[in-house]
Amino acid sequence: MMLKRLMLLMAGALTLAPLSPAHADQLQDIKKKGELACGVLGTDEPFSFIQDPASRALVGYDVDLCNAVAKSLGVKLTLKQLAVSARIPELQQGRVDLLAASLTHNKEREALIDFSLSTFITGQKVLVKKQSGITRLDQLAGKKVLTVKGSTMEQNTKKAVPTAVIVSFDNSPQAFLALQQGKGVAYVNDETSLIDDFSKLGPVAKDYEILPHNLSTEHLAMGLKKGEPAFREQVNKVLRDLEASGEAEKLFTRWFGPTTKMKFPSRPFKIETDKVD
């Protein structure tokens, strides 16, 4: 009786096996649908932003990287503007195929998604009003510090100044405006974003200062769903090719070089590794 029951169970298992879904290959799925959905912020100049209010077209460093990946696949690029806190959930739920959204690659996020090679390496800093008298990070203790919800800036500010009171907003422009309105004494963001915001202050820029100390070193990268090695390798191949051909240097100079608002004299990194501290 036992042998008969075992044989019936094995037969049942063999019958069910073909019904199990095959592993989906996202790379093939993207080619099949003829479209790459890329998630960008759209509010973080020069990574992704609206340059011409008339056309409302999104442009920037991250947008160019999305374009390069779509071109390599021979598919149409669709850009989807995301809030900072929505980036990873939108990717996990398959609403976008790829994130190019000022996304910091860190160990904690590796449990949730995969990352491409680092596409930009920067540091997070603090912008204050000079009248606040704040010149060092430790002077933020017990004070209201403004930043972006769901960002690594929240975590890094807390690590650097545990008693700081973090006040978070949906995006960078809102947090920057809050500093100008006196809703906090400091505003934390990536150095590039702070330089861009500083340039928008105009004549009153003399009343503000970016503190020289880094809160952290940030490796920005493109985000991918976990367990899609073929798509990840395709994205990394595109990035390596951009680096080898000199196009990566041209992209950096276009958006961050000496003639831009960023005024970086040179590119302090290369696209060559996905290792983070």
UniProtKB/TrEMBL annotation:
SUPFAM superfamilies: Periplasmic binding protein-like II. PROSITE patterns: SBP_BACTERIAL_3. This is Binding protein component of ABC transporter. Residues 1-24 form the signal peptide. One of its GO terms (biological process) is amino acid transport. InterPro entries: Bact_solute-bind_prot3, SBP_3_CS, Solute-binding_3/MltF_N. Pfam families: SBP_bac_3 (PF00497). GO terms for cellular component: extracellular region; outer membrane-bounded periplasmic space. CDD domains: PBP2_BsGlnH. It comes from Cystobacter fuscus. Residues 35-259 form the Solute-binding protein family 3/N-terminal domain. Keywords: Signal, Transport. Transmembrane segments: none annotated.
